[in-house]
Specification:
The chain is mainly α and 246 residues long. The chain is 73% helix and 2% strand. It has 15 helices and 2 strands.
């Protein structure tokens, strides 16, 4: 997931090429740029609190990156308020930091703050017009808000940018299904599975569409395949139980 969160960075990794673990104060920089949980929060906090990197004053852009990476760490720990606060700090330091807006959008979405998430993804797209994950995730928020036509538009734009992404085809298929356009839904879900045969969510979405069109045996097969890939997938468990009584 790290790559999905870091689009648009002035990467700390690039800024600190050549710094060894010892020079980076026992790995603070490496921990920070990992963006992962407690390691990121600890390493980035050292940089933020000291306002130094390798004994030298950190620039505003470097501190902005440190806040974003720490916010990503908080996101991974499901501490969404702290994640938002760090993204705010990053934006104050660098108002053009697309990754800060994008990651704040992720946190707002997890808090069901749909309008705030949409605004952040929209700002990300303004700064990076080909940011396919921002289009995809804004589409997800529109979908949850019942704005299926807008969701389809965003998923379509994401697919135009990256036509090899199974997840976005699956998402658009779900939106088409919500609009009652089952033919288009099946086309997208077939494409999603063709691109990634291990996309359990695509099998669930296709099973739901097949069930709604009376193709119960095919739907059962897809639910079972989804559970082979992810045995804890509740939607697949519930869908299979509905069709088989098991």
């Amino acid at each position: 997931m790290l790559g999905k969160h870091t689009r648009g960075f002035c990467l700390l990794a690039a800024l600190f090429v050549g710094i060894t673990a010892g020079q980076a104060r026992s790995g603070d920089v490496q921990d920070c740029i990992s963006g992962k949980g407690e390691n990121a929060t600890r390493g980035c906090s050292s940089i933020i609190d000291s306002k130094q990197i390798n004994g030298q004053p950190a620039s505003a852009r470097e501190l902005a990156d440190a806040y974003v990476f720490r916010g990503m760490g908080y996101f991974g720990l499901r501490m969404f308020d702290r994640s938002v606060a760090d993204m705010n700090a990053a934006i104050d330091l660098n108002p053009q930091h697309a990754a800060a807006f994008y990651n704040r959008g992720l946190a707002h979405a997890m808090q069901s703050k749909h309008e705030d998430a949409i605004a952040d993804y929209t700002r990300t797209i303004h700064l990076e017009p080909r940011h396919e994950r921002a289009f995809n995730n804004r589409g997800n928020v529109y979908h949850r808000a019942g704005k299926f036509h807008l969701a389809v538009q965003d998923y379509t734009r994401a697919i135009e940018i990256n036509p090899g992404d199974s997840l976005t085809y699956s998402n658009r298929g779900g939106a088409y299904n919500a609009l009652g356009r089952t033919g288009l839904a099946l086309d997208d879900l077939n494409a999603a599975i063709r691109l990634n045969p291990e996309n359990a969510g695509a099998y669930v979405n296709r099973a739901f569409t097949l069930r709604n069109t009376g193709r119960f045996k095919s739907a059962i097969a897809d639910y079972r395949r989804a559970l082979e890939l992810n045995p804890s997938l509740k939607q697949a468990q519930q869908g299979l139980a509905l069709l088989t009584g098991q």
